[in-house]
Amino acid sequence: MPKPLLHRPQMQNNTPLHAAQTQQQKQNAQQMDKLKLDRLLRKPRSKEYMQVMRKLDVGGHVHNQHKVDEIVDAIRNEFPDVEISGILFGIVSPCCLGGSYEVHTIDVAGQIIEHYQVGQILPDGLERARSLAIHGGYDFIEVYVDCCRAVSADGTVSVIPV
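^ that's the sequence the OP posted. Answer follows.
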């Protein structure tokens, strides 16, 4: 005669309903992470960060890797809780070198600072920030995967969807 089981062993619930709940929980967690990230990136930029960004047109940064590294470090220090290189394409700002130079960029991944002339195409999605940098009245534009964040002289941030 079979022995009755008094305590049924707990089985993992692999039903389609459970899988759907697990997937929903993952999506909710990702949305919460995105909301936290969005709040963090909307915060006004620090005075130190703003000062570093304003020094870009002084010159000498293009051929001095140590200076470029300092600028990239300032960007990373502004967002210490975020792996910024995965979401920030770069920064575009008006160029004051004169002549036909219009904007300059910082490519965080490649750690490159480059000045662009009128009509010269900006790489890697940075072109979408060019007109904002030239005509928007902002100090610089941070170009992210999903939006641009225009930073005013006082450090306030405006989010421009793409």
